[in-house]
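re: that chain from earlier
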Amino acid sequence: LMTLTLADITHEFAADFREHRAASEKPSTVNRRLATHKHAGKYFETRYLGYSSPWRELKDLAFDRDQFKALLPDERDSFLSSTMWGGSAWEQSLHMVASELLFATGIRVSELCALTIGQLSPELDKFSNVRCKGSRVRDVYLPSAVRPALTAYVIDRDSKLVAWPKFQQVPVNKLSALP
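^ sequence. v structure.
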């Protein structure tokens, strides 16, 4: 095994790592590895004054994000249009946000159902402490493309739930994110 210090991880090292992995792995796999290094870099930046993570500026590898392994493009379009089953605009936005979160973040359905508003960061950029497979806990970062729909949904949701007496008795951080 190789032993590295923070000083060994330079911009050139990070770029070489990405290119070496890109030669033998799919872009989505390389991007997951880069995300792990970016999160570690953020951690070290908060712990070591003056440290600047070289992973931050590294761009993900491009790949066709519209291709899903389990769905053909026309099946995907059909699914996304079928999320409009709800009668009210609020139900429609709920289904659309849930679909977008599933596709954009890779979060599992069980993880999505267990989310609470208290786990959503104030900046709407991540859900913290998501209990995932194997009873592990992780943060789920939200792509910028999902944030406008999520913001609109949360604002609309809060205005709807105020009218329900049973929800007024529940602490905000315990309320389900997607009822």
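The first helix runs from residue 11 to 22.
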